[in-house]
Design a protein that fits this description.
Blueprint: E1 6-9, H1 15-24, E2 28-32, H2 36-45, E3 50-52, H3 56-59, E4 66-69, H4 76-85, E5 89-93, H5 100-113, E6 117-120, H6 127-137, E7 144-154, H7 163-179, E8 183-192, E9 202-209, E10 214-220, E11 222-234, E12 237-242, E13 250-254, E14 264-265, H8 273-287, H9 295-331
Parallel strand pairs: 1-2, 1-4, 2-3, 4-5, 5-6, 7-10
Antiparallel strand pairs: 7-11, 8-9, 9-10, 11-12, 12-13, 13-14
Helix pairs in contact: 1-8, 4-5, 5-9, 6-7, 7-9
């Protein structure tokens, strides 16, 4: 099996975790970042790892087999495209892009070149989510009818286009993966900004999935008390995955027995999801196996979120038009 050498582009808040995991897997070769202090930290904390401020050094290094792109989402398309053109396997943080057509281009490019393109949909690698997927596949919940995912927290660095693009990729990809049902269409989408600007920090999306299952997704950057919860309801039972709990994150409740009289926590392996995700990328690079969260998976998620954003922005324009009309009536 060919030795894998991984480069990481971006040593920000999340990039540090990516670097740590690839280093512990003994495949990290070089880290690229524009900040001198960040590169100095890399050299101090990860002995033997090379650093550079120029991503072309990675492109021109034929020994590098895989690249992790952990940069702001608006840079993903350009950076991933450059790496694929250079013949590198690519892991890119979610979302793969904020434009569905760009996600499609990258997916087709990777397929044409026979390269791995993997999106950082982290929860597809969470042991509790995989235990839930097995439970659903066994029919333990019955026919699936409803899903609800709430991902609420505080973010003081609102540097994405909206909270939806930051957090909802996790929700959409996780629900689709766990249930085995692809999203079909957006049935509702609203968002607002607590700062009264163009960056929505609260969003609510309703999505219809295959088989008629409906899912509601709520994301927030302004909730002081962290809340990360997934509910999947079937005709027999309801599963709840609470990722804020230190243990027993996954529980199942019989629909026909009062919840306060039952307690069915499910066992699963306690392994850091990011470690499993990084290991999966390395394995895919070595074997050529398609990634669990591949480009097609990323494209599906972006297509749904792009549709949701169109609905949100359309509703916002309509609301402004109604406000202007009301003001004009008052002046008459």
């Amino acid at each position: 099996m060919k030795e894998q050498k991984i480069a990481v582009i971006g040593f920000g808040m999340w990039g540090k975790n990516i670097v740590r995991n690839f280093y512990n897997l003994e495949v990290l070769d070089v880290v690229c970042d524009l900040d001198d202090n960040s590169l100095q930290t890399v050299r101090e904390q990860f002995p033997g790892v090379k650093t550079t401020k120029d991503f072309h050094d990675i492109i021109n290094d034929e020994t590098i087999t895989g690249v992790a792109v952990v940069t702001p989402s608006h840079t993903h398309f350009k950076m991933v495209k450059a790496m694929l053109e250079a013949g590198k396997n690519v892991y890119v943080e979610k979302p793969i892009s904020t434009v569905a057509e760009e996600a499609k281009i990258l997916t087709e490019m990777a397929e044409d070149k026979g390269l791995i393109l993997m999106v950082g949909h982290l929860l597809l690698y969470h042991p509790a989510v995989n235990r839930l997927k097995m439970l659903i596949a066994e029919g333990a919940l019955g026919e699936l009818v409803y899903a609800q995912s709430d991902r609420l927290n505080v973010n003081y660095h609102k540097n994405d286009r909206s909270v939806m693009w930051d957090l909802a990729p996790h929700d959409v990809s996780m629900i689709a993966y766990a249930t085995g049902k692809n999203p079909v269409k957006v049935i509702s989408a609203v968002g607002c900004s607590s700062d009264k600007n163009d960056i929505m920090d609260i969003t609510h999306i309703g999505i219809e999935f295959e088989g008629g299952m409906v899912a509601h997704i709520s994301d927030s950057w302004i909730t002081p008390q962290k809340h990360v919860n997934l509910l999947i309801r079937g005709t027999k039972a309801t599963a709840i995955f609470d990722d804020t709990l230190p243990e027993n994150k996954l529980r199942v409740y019989d629909n026909f027995i009062p919840a306060n009289t039952q307690d069915f926590p499910l066992d699963y392996l306690e392994i850091e999801p990011l470690k499993l995700e990084c290991q999966h990328f390395v394995n895919c690079c070595a074997s050529g196996q398609k990634a669990r969260s591949d480009g097609e998976n990323g494209y599906t998620v972006v297509s749904i979120l792009e549709e949701a954003e169109r609905i949100m922005l359309g509703a916002k324009v309509e609301q402004l038009n109604k406000k202007d009309f009301a003001l004009s009536r008052m002046k008459v």
